[in-house]
Amino acid sequence: MARAVSFALPRPRTTSSLARVAIYTATRGVALFLTTVVGIYLTILVANMGGYVDQIKRAEIREQVALAASMNEQIRRLPPEVRERVVAEMIRVEERRLGLDRPFLVRSLRYLQDALLLRLGFAERMTSDSGSRLVRSILLDRLPSTLLLFATTSNLLFFVSVALALTLSRQYGSFWDRLVVALAPLSAPPAWFYGIFLILIFAAWLRWLPFGGMVDAPPPEGKLAYALSVLKHMVLPASAITFTSLPLAVYSWRTFFLIFSSEDYVELARAKGLPGPLVERRYILRPALPTLLTNFALGLIGAWTGAIVLETVFNWPGLGRTLYQAVGLADTPVIVGATVLYAYLLALTVFLLDVAYAIVDPRVRVGG
Amino acid sequence: MRRALLELLQYRSAVAGLVIIGFFVALSVYAVIAIPYPEAIRLWRAGEELWQHNPRSARPEWVNWFLREDLPRTLVVEGTSAAWPARPLGGDVREASGALSFAYPYRRPPSELGIFLETGYRERPPQVELSWIAPDGSEVRIAEFAARRREVYRLSSDPRLQQELGGRPEVVLFSRPDRPGEAMRGRYALRVRTYLFEPDSEVRVRLVVYGEVHGLAGTDHLRRDLSLALLWGAPVAMAFGLVASVGSSVSTLVIAALGAWYGGWVDGLIQRITEVNLILPGLPILIMIATLYSRSLSVMVGVVILLGIFGGGIKTYRALFLQVKESPYIEAARAYGASGLRIVFLYMVPRAVPILVPQFVTLIPSFVFLEATLSVLGLGDPLLPTWGKVIEDAYRAGALYVGQYYWVLEPAALLMLAGLGFTLLGFALDRIFNPRLREL
């Protein structure tokens, strides 16, 4: 399978096709950035409909002023009533300075700027691993574990499903083929749903694999042991994602390959006597690649946000579980921040796939 | 239409899907009629008071079919001092005593013991003495207290009794002397001796021997009967799935048709909104709205529809409508002077129905599961019991860790079955309405 895909990577390109890809990527990047800005702005509008972002801002200002006041020797030495008055005045000035008294339209633009720069304010109750109350630290601390789980499963899923689909399209109508068609409805439930069953079977009943978490407690010494422990904890969540995505992916790609393999040029290639694998790589897989990538991207986008409950069910210390905890604690800044970060992640996914698309699609590369 | 229906019946999977959907529709109708909405909410929200005769975290009764040794059912025995022989003790004071006796046929001890007393008196509450008589005739004194109007005495959570007996009361009182831990079968009795200080005083006693199984679906940690939640989960899931699915797919269709027909900036705007919508993280936004504004089911449906309108489907429909737009019959309509909206709604939208129908049927499960997802996140409707909320309760109570699998498996099985029904039907419809796939 790996050979088939490496084949799909660009052939030696001329500078002009490189330039084309670059231009395409750049325009897509700009367009996507604008889209992201609009998306995040919408998120902020929704979040601030009841003045919630204002509240976050006010809390943040109060926190900063209180901190500044406690550091300031002069203010600390004042009698309590005077000190309170001074602090209140400082808060008022700071709120004016940050424009909290301005009309909402102006404020919302400032919030947009803050959100785009990931200046997400302070959490009300949660703290990051290092004890910071900055929403950005809380979320960015958790991002790598989410990425680890996702990068692994989506790669696995992509190659496995393409390989399976290709094999099945070769033996149309066989038992396995009909089985996959019959199993396609299994993709309806989300990953967490299968997660519960997997925990039930493999953790609660058979006790082969851990219930959840990312490493053993206490974490094992040594890099290799640590990695193995993470791997062991990743088996169940990764299989849950695979369970929910694989049947439909294999089904739709098999159908897709079948459509492509009934094209005239494929018949011609076979008639020429080209070996089967070559026909598959050059005449079926190759033209199907852009569509494959698009489908893959859409699946990935669905999975990103679907992982919130999955991470919760498996206690996987990622972004999704953090969002879940924030919901439990009603920690508004974290919820808004996580939504913004998810919007970013989705945009990034779409962008990366656009780049890949530009590289594999000859219409972009050669111009058409 | 009729032909399509006949053709549908030729697919075994479609028939299976229809049977499953029919089952859930019947279940929903039954639920709504048998337990009206306010009643369902009252029962589910009432708290432990209402369910106090149910065992806590009991498995469904049918697990006994699969077990070699039956798990005990709940036994309730009642008695009243008015029916017992009374002995005057001078003045208005009387002593009345009786026994609540019952047969215990199980080898496992009950899960809990509770005595509920309802007392009628004016000023001096009657004095009550309780003792326990095992089948072998041995008698153990349990407690002695003045019974207020409504007295609940839970033997299992009385630390003094536990210390006196040297173990959990419900186990020790039922133990065979030779094999502690295993229950002795036979007739047990709770002897109640009451001292009544007023002529018209009365003590009504109810002994509840809590079992380990209950009803069709078992109970949760708050003694609530799960069958209520499972039953009411059906209409909620059906309504949420249907409304969200029809709402979003029909509006997507109409918007795609409008965009394709009018073209220009309308089309451009729709395309741009679709792109923005792709970036918007749906579930986090739903979560945000649920935490910040409202988590009622209707608001959630509304937001789901809004987020779904500009979904990926719009591109498929647009491609179709761009082709349809050029067809001769549209030209004919234009020639007779049909207005743009007339063409869109009467000539273009109907053309996409063959694609719409299978699509919205296949979409239903994803919305049913979305409702469950929100519930599992603790963002379900605050009042109604749903399948997702049962899973959430179970998850929070650590049901999987302590082995209460039924609690998770029952709602999960229902969700799965509902999802499967709609998907089976949707796949079959897809093959009928889009015959190009049928050849493959």
Tell me the β content of chain B.
Answer: 15-25%
Outline the low-pLDDT stretches of chain A: 1-8
Low-confidence stretches of chain B: none
Compute the number of strand runs of chain B.
9
Shape of chain A: globular
Largest sheet of chain A: none
Oligomer: heterodimer
Order of helices and strands of chain A: HHHHHHHHHHHHHHH
Radius of gyration of chain B: 31 Å
User: What's the tally of helices of chain B?
Assistant: 17
Structural class of chain B: alpha+beta
Structural category of chain A is mainly alpha
Main pleated sheet of chain B: 5 strands, antiparallel
Question: What is this structure's SSE topology?
Answer:
The complex is a heterodimer of chains A (368) and B (440).
Chain A: H1 2-8, H2 15-47, H3 52-71, H4 73-76, H5 80-97, H6 104-116, H7 135-170, H8 175-183, H9 191-205, H10 223-261, H11 264-271, H12 276-313, H13 319-329, H14 332-360, H15 362-367
Helix pairs in contact in A: 1-12, 2-6, 2-14, 3-5, 7-10, 7-12, 7-14, 9-10, 9-12, 10-12, 11-12, 12-13, 12-14, 13-14
Chain B: H1 2-8, H2 12-34, H3 37-45, E1 75-80, E2 86-88, E3 94-104, E4 112-120, E5 127-133, E6 139-146, E7 150-154, H4 159-165, H5 169-172, E8 186-196, E9 202-210, H6 226-262, H7 264-279, H8 282-292, H9 297-309, H10 313-325, H11 328-335, H12 340-348, H13 353-376, H14 387-396, H15 399-402, H16 405-433, H17 435-438
Antiparallel strand pairs in B: 1-9, 2-3, 3-8, 4-7, 4-9, 5-6, 5-8
Helix pairs in contact in B: 2-6, 2-16, 6-7, 6-9, 6-10, 6-12, 6-13, 6-16, 8-9, 11-12, 13-14, 13-16, 14-16
